[in-house]
Write a sequence for this structure.
């Protein structure tokens, strides 16, 4: 469901609703893989930082450890990730399972098509400008 932003004067609400619309777009594009865009992002980070702990992955993803732990539960349940830590060890050793690698590969192909369509819809110049604004907004509090 597309959320309207044209009659809102609050910048925060416009950004929030736009982000929700974009997330729903990506969710619908990668839905055939069986995972959500948030799960895809987690698998993507884990593929980059294979063997890291939950704390390290949370840091890489700019999430709290507790938020990431909640996000990891369905991925463990689905058999997409595993923890290879030794019994009694404190730190996790997170990894993609073979099933996780296959789902991630399928989702990546779908995500790449979504990226191409997103870029085509906005245009290269608009997208670069938009990303420049996002970079500025990232530093709004500094």
């Amino acid at each position: 469901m597309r959320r309207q932003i044209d009659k809102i004067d609050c910048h925060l609400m416009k950004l929030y609703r736009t982000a929700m619309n974009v997330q729903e777009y990506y969710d619908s594009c990668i839905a055939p893989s069986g995972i959500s865009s948030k799960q895809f992002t987690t698998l993507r980070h884990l593929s980059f930082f294979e063997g890291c702990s939950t704390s390290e992955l949370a840091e890489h993803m700019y999430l709290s450890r507790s938020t990431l732990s909640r996000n990891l539960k369905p991925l463990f349940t689905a058999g997409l990730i595993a923890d290879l830590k030794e019994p009694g060890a404190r730190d996790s050793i997170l990894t993609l399972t073979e099933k996780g690698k296959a789902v991630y590969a399928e989702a990546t192909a779908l995500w790449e098509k979504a990226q191409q369509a997103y870029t085509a819809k906005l245009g290269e110049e608009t997208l670069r400008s938009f990303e420049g604004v996002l970079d500025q907004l990232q530093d709004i509090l500094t």
The mean pLDDT is 92. The CA atoms of residues 74 and 124 lie 36 Å apart. The two ends are 34 Å apart (CA to CA). The longest strand covers residues 81-83.
